[in-house]
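Help! Submission page says 'invalid entity' but I think these are all valid:
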Amino acid sequence: DIQMTQSPSTLSASVGDRVTITCRASQGISSWLAWYQQKPGKAPKVLIYRASRLESGVPSRFSGSGSGTEFTLTVSSLQPEDFATYYCQQYNSYPWTFGQGTKVEIK
Amino acid sequence: QVQLVESGGGLVKPGGSLRLSCAASGFNFTDYYLSWIRQAPGKGLEWVSYISGSTSYTKYADSVKGRFTISRDNAKKSLYLQMSSLRVEDTALYYCARDRNDGIVGRYFDYWGQGTPVTVSS
């Protein structure tokens, strides 16, 4: 199975900050990576697919980059509604696997 | 709009069985693969199983293979997960999700239900 490792596990930031989350795959996955946002008590919501493509309706302050084994999710200017937990997911090969999550907290 | 509504969760003893359901609306049901994904309390996400749209091809995570069975009723626009030989470690919130094709094999999840909780405890 492909292991996905996110860093950091927790990130403290302020409104307006630029934040970056990293996701590393245990083997190359080309660009077959998605990012999700999950708020407490809610289902995950997809933000980015194919590493860098913005899902319809997602604000442009979210962006993704990377290929192979290293990927990043960037929020250019953190908004109050962005405090949540973020997960990456690889869909290069079965079983689809997720990172352990990065919680973005208010500083 | 796309809606996925899970039901059927509850408290069950180890070794017991449970059947989850997911009612879908707002999209052409047979066009899409569907998955079950679970989240243990305070933990991350784990893909459990998927089923194809019309041919009902299925695949399972090793952790549930031989114990869980995914199925769908296209006429009722419903997805199911029959869970048997349940273990304490199967305790989780179970989501149904719509798969979105991307690439030759890959799929990610573009719509999720709100989840149904399963607790396995004596």
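Support: the input was valid. A stray whitespace character was the problem, and the output above is from the cleaned input. The mean pLDDT of chain A is 96.
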